[in-house]
Specification:
Layout (H helix, E strand, L loop, with lengths): L5 H13 L2 H9 L7 H5 L5 E6 L5 E7 L5 E5 L10 H7 L5 E4 L16 H15 L5 E6 L1 H12 L1 H7 E7 L18 H4 L7 H12 L8 H7 L8 H13 L2 H13 L13 E6 L7 H9 L4 E6 L6 H4 L1 H16 L1
Parallel strand pairs: 3-4, 3-5, 5-6, 6-7, 7-8
Antiparallel strand pairs: 1-2, 2-4
Helix pairs in contact: 1-9, 4-15, 5-6, 6-7, 9-12, 10-11
Length: about 325
C-alpha cells in the first residue's frame, strides 16, 4: 500500500460513502422512537473496581447481584460494559452478574498496542475470573468480545475448565476473513487496507474526518451504527452506540478492526470443551448467517438460535428475549 497518502484513502472512502447515500436516507428514516437515549446511558447500580490485566494495565469491572451460576459479560468493539445493562438488571435478581470494559475501551487501559485484542483479552479474562474469584461462570461475549471469549476458552483451557460451565456467543465469528466483503464495511475498505506501519496514523486521521462527514443531515458514523441494527432499531439505542464509539481512539479502533479481519480460529474450535449457545440476528449485516454456521459447525456441544429480524445489537433490539435465552441456557446446562 506504499506510495498512497491518507488523502488517497480518504478519497476512496468518501467515494464509497457517497455511493451509499440512498441507503443512508432509507436506514435513518427507518428508525423507531422507542426508549429514549437516557435509558441506554443510565448506568446499572452495583460494585465496581479494577483488576490487573495481562500487561499490568487496569481492567475495569462492574458486578451486581448474587447467586450461581455466575455470569461474565464482554462487549463488542467501540462499546462498554454498559451495553449489557438490560441483561444485567434482569439476571441479577438471582445471579451474580459481572461485566468488563475490554482493554482500550471505556474505563480500561489499553496496554500493549501490538498485542492483538483477542489474545490479550483472553488473559485479561483469566485475571478477572481469578481476582474476582468467579466460579460456575457462563461467559457471554458479543462480536469481538465473543472472539476474545472463544480465544480464552481455547488458549486458557485450564482456567476455563476450572471456572467456566458455558459460553454464549452473541453475534460473533470464528473467522473475520469474509467480513470485509459485507456491505456494511464498504466505506472503510480502503482505510482498513492501509493498516501497515507507514500509514496507520494517517489512516486514523482520515477515519476521524470520514466519520464526521455530513451525509444527508447525519454522518457516516450514525449510518454505520444504524447498519448494526435490524428491522426495529430504536433511535436512542443507535445514538447511544454512536456516542460510545466516538469515545474510542481512532487508532485503537482501526487497529482493532484490522485485527478482526485477520481473526481465524476455525481449526481450533474443536478444542472448546464446554457447552456453547450461538445467538445471531437474521438481519445482521456485519456477520451474516454463514458466519454463525461456520462457528456452530466447529463446536461439538452447541445450540444455535437465530433471532428473526434482529441485527448485530440483539442485547438492545431484543433485550428481554436475549435475557430469557441466557437464563434458559443456564438452566439447561445446570439441570
Amino acid at each position: 500500500m506504499s506510495g498512497r497518502s491518507y488523502r488517497d484513502f480518504l478519497s476512496d472512502a468518501i467515494s464509497a460513502g457517497a455511493n451509499l447515500r440512498h441507503r443512508v436516507v432509507h436506514q435513518l428514516e427507518g428508525m423507531v422512537e422507542g426508549r429514549p437515549i437516557e435509558t441506554f446511558r443510565e448506568a446499572t447500580s452495583g460494585r465496581t473496581g479494577y483488576v490487573d490485566g495481562a500487561e499490568g494495565q487496569r481492567i475495569f469491572w462492574h458486578e451486581t447481584g448474587e447467586g450461581s451460576p455466575e455470569f461474565l459479560f464482554i462487549h463488542g468493539l467501540g462499546l462498554t460494559h454498559n451495553v449489557w445493562k438490560f441483561q444485567q438488571e434482569t439476571l441479577a435478581a438471582d445471579h451474580r452478574v459481572a461485566s468488563i470494559d475490554l482493554r482500550g475501551h471505556g474505563q480500561s487501559e489499553r496496554g500493549d498496542i501490538d498485542l492483538p485484542i483477542a489474545r490479550g483479552a483472553a488473559v485479561d479474562i483469566v485475571r478477572v475470573l481469578t481476582q474476582l474469584d468467579m466460579r460456575n461462570v457462563i461467559i457471554v461475549g458479543h462480536s469481538i468480545g465473543g472472539m476474545s471469549m472463544l480465544e480464552f476458552a481455547i488458549s486458557q483451557s485450564d482456567v476455563c475448565s476450572e471456572r467456566v460451565i458455558g459460553l454464549v456467543a452473541q453475534s460473533t465469528t470464528a473467522t473475520g476473513k469474509n467480513m470485509l466483503e459485507t456491505r456494511a464495511y464498504a466505506p472503510f475498505r480502503a482505510l482498513l487496507g492501509a493498516l501497515d506501519a507507514s500509514v496507520v496514523a494517517p489512516a486514523a486521521e482520515a477515519f476521524v474526518r470520514l466519520r464526521a462527514l455530513p451525509i444527508t443531515d447525519s454522518d457516516l458514523g450514525l449510518f454505520a451504527f444504524r447498519e448494526m441494527f435490524g428491522e426495529n432499531a430504536e433511535e436512542g439505542a443507535v445514538l447511544y452506540s454512536r456516542e460510545l464509539v466516538h469515545i474510542l481512539e481512532p487508532l485503537s479502533m482501526l487497529q482493532a478492526m484490522n485485527e478482526i479481519f485477520g481473526h481465524d480460529i476455525v481449526d481450533r474450535l474443536d478444542q472448546i470443551d464446554v457447552p456453547v449457545l450461538v445467538v445471531d440476528g437474521t438481519h445482521d449485516l456485519l456477520l451474516p448467517e454463514s458466519e454463525s454456521r461456520i462457528l456452530a459447525g466447529g463446536i461439538s456441544d452447541v445450540e444455535w438460535v437465530p433471532v428473526n429480524g434482529a441485527g448485530h445489537m440483539i442485547m438492545y433490539e431484543e433485550s428481554d428475549f436475549l435475557s430469557c435465552l441466557i437464563r434458559g441456557f443456564a438452566h439447561e446446562i445446570t439441570a
